[in-house]
Amino acid sequence: MHIRPIEGKVFGAVVSQVKLADLGDEAFAAIHQAFLRYGFLLFPGQFLSEAENIAFGERFGPLEFGALPLANQYKNDQGQFDEVIPLDTQRMRTNVGNEAWHTDSTYMPISSKCALLSAVTVPAAGGQTELADMRAAYAALDESLRESISHLSAYHSTQYSQAHDVGDFPPTVADTIYHGEAYLRPLVKTHPETGVKSLFIGRHAFGIPGMTRQESYQLLQDLLAFAVGDETRVYQHCWSAGDTLIWDNRALLHRARPYDYSQPRVLIGTRVAGDEASELAYYPRDPAAAAGRRALADELARLRGEIGDTLTRSCGAGEVSDLRG
Fold first, then answer.
1. How does DSSP classify residue 89?
2. Residue range 242-273, pLDDT digits in tens
3. What is the pLDDT of residues 121-144, one digit of tens each?
4. Are the C-beta atoms of residues 271 and 247 closer than 8 Å to each other?
5. Mutual orientation of helices 158-166 and 90-97 as an angle, nearest 10°?
6. Is 31 within a domain?
7. Which residues pair with 234 in a beta bridge?
8. Which residues of 56-73 are buried (b: 16+ CB within 10 A; e: fewer)?
9. Cα separations (Å) of 318 from 61, 88, 89, 162?
10. Which residues are CB-neighbours of 125 under 8 A, at least 6 positions away?
11. What is the model's pTM?
12. β-bridge pairing 13-16 and 40-43
């Protein structure tokens, strides 16, 4: 097995001469250490099956979900991807929303540990996945700014991010990513395995308690712009069929890039659940959750007044129930 750091970047590595479908404990231990060090790992030419995708993800811990098609095509009864999903559907509006910087599942009680994608079909152009190192971004902040944000937190909600980024106001449906809750998380995260601090922000974050709405928005936008403003902290992956990419949601942001949505793009996604001890904000039944619900309801009301539903709605709660963010 060969692990080669990404040239010109402060993070990331390409792993070759290894077969993820047939991985021994010693090889996985080396991969896990590289994963913690580099933040993301690229494994070209793996062509993992759905079962192999799940099995590799489970090496990192219990899954949120395994081998979920993240695609712009419907999967038919024979397991093939055929009909392209119309852009004006909730599924595709959610996909388009994910073209803004984010980390996975911060809008759930327990945020994600890590995630992996395996490429099945890729468009002729566009559709890349970008990653950004929030550890390096935090370390590069002015010391006074690091101190000033050390005690701050922000609410996280995908209903907020969809409304703000896409003008999309999905109906609230329990047991989906559009569940009506908002979870308060620190702006500065200490990695539970490495102890390294990073910025914990992204598109789902809003409403810093103790700040005005405008102050909160401006600070979050400024931090994000700074974090992704240095090209050594951002990596863009141009997919080839068979690639598998895994990243640490506790240290990085990521986003998809636009493409011709009439062309097939099929990735298989597996997401590893975070450890409750380090990734739990609170549960909806906890008293702390009420403040998050109020903050989200107030913010959505304001956004509706400012921008309205800018997209024509063509789906109901049934379609929303199929979504994972």
1. S
2. 999 999 999 999 999 999 999 999 999 999 99
3. 999 999 999 999 999 999 999 999
4. no
5. 90
6. yes
7. 132
8. bbeebeebbebbbbbbbb
9. 30, 15, 12, 18
10. 259, 260
11. 0.94
12. parallel
Domain that holds residue 129: 2-319
Domain count, the chain: 1
Residue 325 lies in a domain: no
Q: Which amino acid is at 212?
A: T
> What pLDDT does residue 308 have?
66
Give whole-number Cα distances, 185 to 105, 108, 110, 208, in Å. Answer: 12, 11, 10, 10
Enumerate residues 6+ apart whose C-beta is below 8 A from 106.
156, 183, 185, 200, 202, 204, 205
205 domain-assigned: yes
Q: Which CATH number covers residue 276?
A: 3.60.130.10
Residue 201 pLDDT class (50, 70, 90 cuts) = very high
Buried b (16+ CB within 10 A) or exposed e, 291-318: ebbebbeebbeebeeeeeeebeeebeee
141 within some domain: yes
DSSP 3-state of 24: coil
